[in-house]
Amino acid sequence: MDKFFSVYYSGKPFQLFSQVHIITLLAIIIINLIICFNAERLRKSRTDKFARNFIASGLLLTELSFQLWCGLTGVWTAEYNLPFHLCSAATIICAVMLYMNSYKIFRLAYFWGLGGAIPALMTPDLSGYNYPHYVFFKYFILHGLIVISVIYMTVVHRYKLNIRSVIRAFIYLNIFALFVIPVNIITGGNYLFLCRKPEAVTPLDYLGTWPWYIISMELVVLAMFFALYLPFVIKDYADRYKSTRSGLSSGI
After folding, report:
1. What is the DSSP string of 200-249?
2. How far is 6 from 193, CA to CA, in rounded Å?
3. What residue ranges in the chain does DSSP mark as E strands?
4. Residue 11, SS3?
5. Are 144 and 29 in contact (CB under 8 A)?
6. 159-182, pLDDT tens digit by residue?
7. DSSP letter string over 95-134?
């Protein structure tokens, strides 16, 4: 147990797309598929509120456990542990969305949550920690729950988005970044990676040097938000097509 929580880790460092990484990603995908296949049942049952509260509580407790772990091990710092990382902000937003069953918050949580958590899951920055250390479990549980919370509200509550939702989420993200800039200056942190690239291998490595990669990052984020919006475009088109076909059949 001491090794599980120890700040010192002497095992094999985490490797991208290693067996444990792939298995973890598959587990998250399977959970989301289970939610999708049982959306109708969840929507019509009393388990909806329980499920939303369970996921929201899991998000907050996982984040709080990490803050506690950092404090007890003496590694808590204002330059890293404040809730100004995109996924930290998404954790709070998603939890509130689930507790309140809020469509307004969903319009932001969908883009911030998936836009932050999916790249984080694909290219994790674990500072060398690996399975079966606590940091490994915390990282994948937290980011996995962010994705699960958004997928849950999308398929179970049938929340929809429009093009204005994309622009709104992007504008709010830039406003958030304006608040983060002085936080980085005061704390010496690197929230939202505005000061330097992460040490782990990430897509940012292909976007140029600082500060030019920030401009590239803006374009990538906007493109990602539009890509995340694409399933709603396809769904709307399919619904209109079915409606048109149904109308033609009725006319005949």
Report:
1. S--GGGGS-STTHHHHHHHHHHHHHHHHHHHHHHHHHHHHHHHHHHHHHH
2. 27
3. none
4. coil
5. no
6. 999 999 999 999 999 999 999 999
7. HHHHHHT-HHHHHHHHHHHHHHHHHHHHS---TT--TTSH
pTM of the predicted structure, to 2 decimals: 0.91
pLDDT number for residue 78: 96
**Residues 174 and 214: beta-carbon distance below 8 Å:** no
Q: Three-state SS for 93? A: helix
For residue 1, pLDDT over 90 is answered with no
CA distances from 98 to 17, 22, 58, 170, 173 (A): 31, 28, 11, 21, 20
User: What pLDDT, on the 0 to 100 scale, is given for residue 11?
Assistant: 85
How many other β-carbons are positioned within 10 Å of the β-carbon of residue 198? 13
Q: Would residue 127 be called left, alpha or beta, if left means φ above 0 and alpha means ψ between -120 and 50 degrees?
A: left
Determine whether 209 is exposed, middle or buried from the number of CB atoms within 10 Å of its CB (0-12, 13-18, 19+): exposed
Measured in residues, the chain has a length of 252
Alpha-carbon gap, residue 115 to 176, rounded angstroms: 15
Q: What pLDDT sits at residue 128?
A: 86
pLDDT at 252: 55
The pair phi, psi for residue 31, each rounded to 5°, is -60, -45
CA–CA dist 236, 124 (Å, integer):
33
pLDDT, one tens digit per residue, over 84-113 is: 999 999 999 999 999 999 999 999 999 999
| Exposed / middle / buried, residue 22 (Cβ in 10 Å: 0-12, 13-18, 19+) | exposed
Angstrom distance (rounded) from CA 202 to CA 206: 8
